[in-house]
TrEMBL record:
<keyword id="KW-0325">Glycoprotein</keyword>
<dbReference type="GO" id="GO:0016757">
    <property type="term" value="F:glycosyltransferase activity"/>
</dbReference>
<dbReference type="InterPro" id="IPR024709">
    <property type="entry name" value="FucosylTrfase_pln"/>
</dbReference>
<keyword id="KW-0472">Membrane</keyword>
<comment type="similarity">
    <text>Belongs to the glycosyltransferase GT106 family.</text>
</comment>
<keyword id="KW-0735">Signal-anchor</keyword>
<dbReference type="InterPro" id="IPR019378">
    <property type="entry name" value="GDP-Fuc_O-FucTrfase"/>
</dbReference>
<keyword id="KW-0812">Transmembrane</keyword>
<dbReference type="Pfam" id="PF10250">
    <property type="entry name" value="O-FucT"/>
</dbReference>
<keyword id="KW-0294">Fucose metabolism</keyword>
<protein>
    <recommendedName>
        <fullName>O-fucosyltransferase family protein</fullName>
    </recommendedName>
</protein>
<keyword id="KW-0808">Transferase</keyword>
<feature type="transmembrane region" description="Helical">
    <location>
        <begin position="20"/>
        <end position="44"/>
    </location>
</feature>
<keyword id="KW-0328">Glycosyltransferase</keyword>
<dbReference type="GO" id="GO:0016020">
    <property type="term" value="C:membrane"/>
</dbReference>
<dbReference type="GO" id="GO:0005768">
    <property type="term" value="C:endosome"/>
</dbReference>
<keyword id="KW-0119">Carbohydrate metabolism</keyword>
Amino acid sequence: MRRAGDVFGRRGNRHLKQLWGLRGLLERLSVALIVLLIGSISLFTTFKTPPVETNGYLRVRCNGGLNQQRTATCNAVLTARIMSATLVLPELDANRFSWIYDVEHFIKLLRYDVHIVETLPEISKHGKSKKDAPVNRYKTVALEVMKEHGAIFLTPFSHRLEEEIDNAEYQRLRCRVNYHALQFKPQIMKLSQAIVSKLHSQGHFMSIHLRFEMDMLSFAVGLILRAMGFDNSTRIYLAAGEFFGGDRFMKPFRALFPHLSNHNTMGLSADELAEGTHGMLGSTVDYMVCLLSDIFLQPYDGPSNVMGHRLYYGFRIIIQPDRKALAPIFIKREKGQTTDFEESVRGVMYNIPFGGPHKRIPPESLYVNSWPECFCQMNPRNTANKCQPLNIVENLNSRLQSEEGMRSSNMTDG
């Protein structure tokens, strides 16, 4: 068994201690506590409350996997706000929204932003919006159709609203949906927390999200982790269904890191996976375990809501290998040039931010990194970016009640 210090000396040992040490302890704070500390950041809104009479109903079908559906739901809420429409609870391909998410929480938290209903009256016009459509399209073309028919149904609703919008409140609304309103059902949260508690009872653990696509083979991931100083005592939770190469490619990885687990080995039965969430329980539990793990490793370059979620809730540690920089190192290894392999890998890996704060520069996605759009400032030049008091929710409730009182008074006077 090799220890971190044995693998790459004092420098590597220092880096590994930073990952597993005090910061690792802080990472294990529950999401609930962190929400109390920073929840006012994107919960705050300068929006006026939505009008009682809206322009019509917006119905959408969010296609794709869990990540794509979350992103589409954020865009649906923002689109409803832009159009002054009432949002019908989003449809998730073959699943119902209520099978996965806490509907009551979703509607209640967004009541200051949009009106949301669970079902649609029997009036609708089907339509398909352009990919990455600009805000103006929803204020003109789509809005005209909605006003004419009373409702509009956009399907499929994936990447149907541009991401780069020069409006801070619009971007904050996306974060408000993604990191506060979209809360899994209590059953999912309870199961996820039980798995995380069980894993933490044995110490630190890392989560890795593997995909079916040939992004980076599991064995290559294993070599990178070994070069970084993680030895065969490292405990790893695998968030994956089918992945490229299957068990044949996992055997070498398992030889390097035998302490592997997933939602099946952690006690989720086939019946539990099938019931309640109609086949989505495994994906949602994986999402939460990856969110709450001490370290999260994503071996592919694509956008990930888990990465964005971990950054938002306290810049939790993330490892995302730079595949472009690592490629020539692995090519040399395949040719038999292995003498400086681990040192070269370390040279690449310890130059990544590990989930620390860094300003988002497009084309990096808002859903991967919402810094600085969704974070407040203590002494901002623009007062709209100022950190709000911790009782912001009570203030919003008071404002909403005041506006409702004024509307009632006006109706009485009329």
